[in-house]
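Ticket 4471: requesting a sanity check on a complex prediction with 3,4-dihydroxyphenylalanine. Repro inputs:
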Amino acid sequence: MTKATDSTSQTLAALGVASADAVTARFAALRAEFDGDAGGEGAWKALHDSWMGRKSGVLTRVTENWLKTATPALRPAVGKCLNELRGHVEQRLAELQRAAESAADEAALARERVDLSLPGVTRPLGSRHLLRQTFAEIERIFLSLGFAVVEGPEIETPYYNFEALNIPEHHPARDTMDTFYLETPRQNSGGPARLLRTHTSPMQIHTMEKQPAPVRIIVPGKVYRRDNPDATHSYMFHQVEGLAVDTDITFCEFKGTVEYFVREFLGPKIRTRLRPSYFPFTEPSVEVDASCFVCGGSGCRLCKSSGWIELFGAGMVDPAVYGFVNYDAKRLSGYAFGLGVDRLSQLKYGIEDMQLFFQNDVRFLRQFP
Ligand code: DAH
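Returned structure tokens:
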């Protein structure tokens, strides 16, 4: 079958077109062919080239072969029909182009679509260990009283861990504290012995060596002892040491500070009591007890029917300690305390076995988010 567009390579005269009606019919055939080709949306570009192509597109051929060669009588009809056809072709091609472009856009959107309703990749979030939370709580309370937080080394010499704290070589207090001694190259070549600190108290000495009074510090940290693990013991545990030294510190300030801490930490209804005790670096020394927060003091399993729970050791700094750091014992006075962080956490949160702190069982950890 010959196509209408084939006729555009010939002149109208050659085609035997002699009337305006015949011209209109020829253009109608062209338009019908164009509309047939333009039915789909796929190849608008090819359609554009074959109809609007400058050199040999159908419209160019019509212009060259039909319009320019038309007899003066037919020329107006050819011109009019050509303009109409051009307008029609241009408009339709523009539509096809728009349709093709938006189809491409939609395909790209579909390809790149992110489904926001899909659940994301969930990474399990950790939380602060209960001991860290307890450290933070203790630090908050003492910071509010004007204490500074300092930290110190876990490896010490016997001088700082014992002697300067008024615990001489053969003092019985060392028996419960003798600990892990380290074999370091330095020590093998004649240096002082090294050991894992048994308490955070050595930082009392380091701090007073470094700065003059007044001193108000707390020292959170890890300590080590040769203990076998059980519900209340571990070879590694945690303490917060406290030290306050100034020119006018009395036993009253000491007692008030301790009571304030206990009430902030355990609750406003808790009462405290000081029991005489002994530590080589404090004089007098006390054990700080709290009224039992389970039974309120009437006696229960936790307080072993006594109504009181032993919390921590403390006391007024023994003047002998000032001698080791060149502080003037006549002018200065102060107090110190040593909080067992594991013990305080166990009491506050009702944890019977201290080992739970170190086993990292998430079923335990999750209970303290
Ligand atoms: N260092 C002691 C210990 O670990 C605890 C202690 C008691 C520290 C009384 C003090 C204190 O500062 O005054 O057993």
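Notes from triage: The CA atoms of residues 294 and 302 lie 7 Å apart. Leaving this open until the requester confirms.
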